[in-house]
């Protein structure tokens, strides 16, 4: 099938590469000309395990272009995968979606299935349909479908090839789209969940909000465990065997980040308030998450009474391991907070770069060893595998002080303590 994927970001590139691998003919378009130039040269602008290889394997049926209208015209199916970031009041910024709708309206001269993969608030797909009609596009020439994406960064390709479900939201009178979607995904084994446009949008937000709730819940429990000298892992192990609870997504730590949970929980809160529903739980989930970085700073301040000019090594900049994405990374918030307290911060991440302009007190190091050099304290801020296997005796020899703050509960306190270093964590007795 001839498909145009609009947006060459984490979701767009993964969608384009996976659909090409399934045998479709794909053109992935983006307004970012530099990105398209890079992709045409065979360089993948983001780090996502396996993506580069999959793109290069499928180069015969996967092209990249910045000619958006022309490539929409050629395709029978359009996937929208542009960004939907937060506005300052929590609403979703739909300007990128709006400009895609404008491009589609200019391009349509034959029938298109328009599939929204971007995460958009309830009502948006109905609105896309309405906007296209208002722009004079013949309703017989298109159908709008919602097909939200559930991939995780770091495991994006396998999540897309082996999803636990494929959610399709469509209009009641749309008799065409379901069979087209089934044809597109025919090599993927997963149940189809078919619902309305608003229903599919709500499934996506509910999924992210529920997962974020699990994280804030366990982070709150960890605060209580900390006061009663209880190990949080014992508690998660104890409750996780109950299939109604499950052991997944119950790792406590510095809080959730990334380009989706923070913005999507906020957006759902906004959608609720917009209809006069007070989403007390969603508000609490965000309040807990926003205070996690401070909780870890408070923990540290029991050991360090004056932060000014202290050298702190922060291991991890990305919002989670196996990605270079730093959007809403709690590690970045921690670095900024430490810097504002007067610390000298030395960071290291295997893939991610600090997302802000150089400041005198914050440095990024290409090697873990140089980041640790002369540090009063080492903080594990992202749970990369590399940080779980450190030789603490070697680390101790490079440090000036002896504090290790584990903000991801990913290292064994005992192993650290045996070297004479001081292990600091929340609810890790
Ligand atoms: N990153 C993730 O893990 C997941 C993201 N999502 C959702 O997917 C959507 C995309 O997310 P990401 O891929 O992370 O975003 P991204 O920011 O990595 O990529 C978006 C791309 O769209 C391009 N773009 C913007 N306006 C355009 C236009 N008018 N025409 C063509 N290209 C345009 C941008 O230049 C950028 O390259 C968002 O709605 C997000 O919430 C859903 C599931 C997972
Ligand atoms: O809509 C999206 O963009 C995506 O958001 C998340 O995926 P992602 O943001 O890539 O990463 P997760 O693995 O979900 O982690 C999110 C954050 O929660 C944190 N986390 C995760 C799990 C856990 O137990 N504890 C915890 O603190 C991670 O460190 C990270 O900061 C969802 O898991 C995906 O299903 C969804 O498609």
TrEMBL record:
The keyword RNA-binding does not apply. This is UDP-glucose 6-dehydrogenase. Keywords: NAD, Oxidoreductase. The keyword rRNA processing does not apply. Pathway: Nucleotide-sugar biosynthesis; UDP-alpha-D-glucuronate biosynthesis; UDP-alpha-D-glucuronate from UDP-alpha-D-glucose: step 1/1. Belongs to the UDP-glucose/GDP-mannose dehydrogenase family. InterPro entries: 6-PGluconate_DH-like_C_sf, NAD(P)-bd_dom_sf, UDP-Glc/GDP-Man, UDP-Glc/GDP-Man_DH_C, UDP-Glc/GDP-Man_DH_C_sf, UDP-Glc/GDP-Man_DH_dimer, UDP-Glc/GDP-Man_DH_N, UDPglc_DH_bac. It holds the Pfam family UDPG_MGDP_dh_N. It catalyses: UDP-alpha-D-glucose + 2 NAD(+) + H2O = UDP-alpha-D-glucuronate + 2 NADH + 3 H(+). Its EC number is 1.1.1.22. The lineage of its organism: Bacteria, Bacillati, Bacillota, Bacilli, Bacillales. GO terms for molecular function: UDP-glucose 6-dehydrogenase activity. Residues 313-413 form the UDP-glucose/GDP-mannose dehydrogenase C-terminal domain.
């Amino acid at each position: 099938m001839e498909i145009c994927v609009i947006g060459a970001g984490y979701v767009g590139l993964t969608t384009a590469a996976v659909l090409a691998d399934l045998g479709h003919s794909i053109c992935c378009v983006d307004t970012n000309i530099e990105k398209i130039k890079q992709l045409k040269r065979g360089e993948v602008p983001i780090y996502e395990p396996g993506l580069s290889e999959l793109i290069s394997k499928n180069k015969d049926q996967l092209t990249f272009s910045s000619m958006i209208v022309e490539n929409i015209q050629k395709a029978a199916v359009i996937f929208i995968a542009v960004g939907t970031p937060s506005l300052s009041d929590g609403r979703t910024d739909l300007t990128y979606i709006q400009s895609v709708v404008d491009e589609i309206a200019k391009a349509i001269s034959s029938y298109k299935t328009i599939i929204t993969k971007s995460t958009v608030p309830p009502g948006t797909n109905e609105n896309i349909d309405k906007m296209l009609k208002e722009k004079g596009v013949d309703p017989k020439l298109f159908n709008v479908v919602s097909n939200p994406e559930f991939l995780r960064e770091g495991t994006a390709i396998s999540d897309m090839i082996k999803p636990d479900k494929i959610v399709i939201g469509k209009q009641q009178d749309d008799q065409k789209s379901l069979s087209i979607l089934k044809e597109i995904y025919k090599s993927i084994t997963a149940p189809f969940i078919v619902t309305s446009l608003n229903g599919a949008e709500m499934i996506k937000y509910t999924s992210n909000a529920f997962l974020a709730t699990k994280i804030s819940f366990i982070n709150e429990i960890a605060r209580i465990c900390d006061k009663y000298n209880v190990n949080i892992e014992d508690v998660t192990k104890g409750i996780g065997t109950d299939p109604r609870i499950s052991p997944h997504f119950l790792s406590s730590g510095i809080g959730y980040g990334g380009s989706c949970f923070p913005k999507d929980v906020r957006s759902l809160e906004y959608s609720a308030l917009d209809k006069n529903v007070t989403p007390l739980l969603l508000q609490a989930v965000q309040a807990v998450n926003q205070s996690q970085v401070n909780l870890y700073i408070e923990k540290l301040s029991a050991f360090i009474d004056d932060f000014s000019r202290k050298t702190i090594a922060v291991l991890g900049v990305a919002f989670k391991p196996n990605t270079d994405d730093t959007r809403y990374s709690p590690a970045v918030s921690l670095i900024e907070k430490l810097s504002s307290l007067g610390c000298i911060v030395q960071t290291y991440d295997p893939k991610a770069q600090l997302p802000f302009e150089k400041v005198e007190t914050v440095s990024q190091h290409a090697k873990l060893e140089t980041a640790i050099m002369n540090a009063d304290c080492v903080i594990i801020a992202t749970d990369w595998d590399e940080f779980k296997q450190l030789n603490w005796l070697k680390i101790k020899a490079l440090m000036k002080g002896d504090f290790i703050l584990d903000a991801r509960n990913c290292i064994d306190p005992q192993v650290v303590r045996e070297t004479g270093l001081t292990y600091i964590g929340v609810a890790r007795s």
